[in-house]
Amino acid sequence: MFSDIGALELVTLVVLAVLVFGPDKLPKVIQDVSRFIRKVREFSDSAKQDIRSELGPDFKDFEFEDLNPKTFLRKQMEQNEDLRELKELRGSFDLKKEMNEVADAVHGRETPSAVNGSAGAVAAANGTPDLLKKQDKPDTSERPPYDSDAT
pTM for the whole thing? Predict the structure, then answer.
């Protein structure tokens, strides 16, 4: 129930409770709140049982958690055989790898597929320069030409 409350938040709630109700009334307030929560749970459980009994034997395995769309979809995907092929396809496609290859091609770096010769062999056969192939870097000891208009 309180799985998303951290330690600092819990300490803050305790300090606020002590300040608002005082140390004398705090145990009574805690008992009243726990009794209220227990009654709400009992009411909720009895309402669920009434709904299940009214639905009949066809919905004997009905779970109220299935009303949550995410839970329902997850359960349906696990049961459906056709979607297993989709999972296999999804597992074989690596979006990061594809994006890295595109980025490398845009920036002019060699990709593993270009090293294997798939793109370079086609360009060499046509006699056209391969624009995706890594260009030779100029010698770092040599200074680039000075352009007065650019400065």
Answer: 0.40
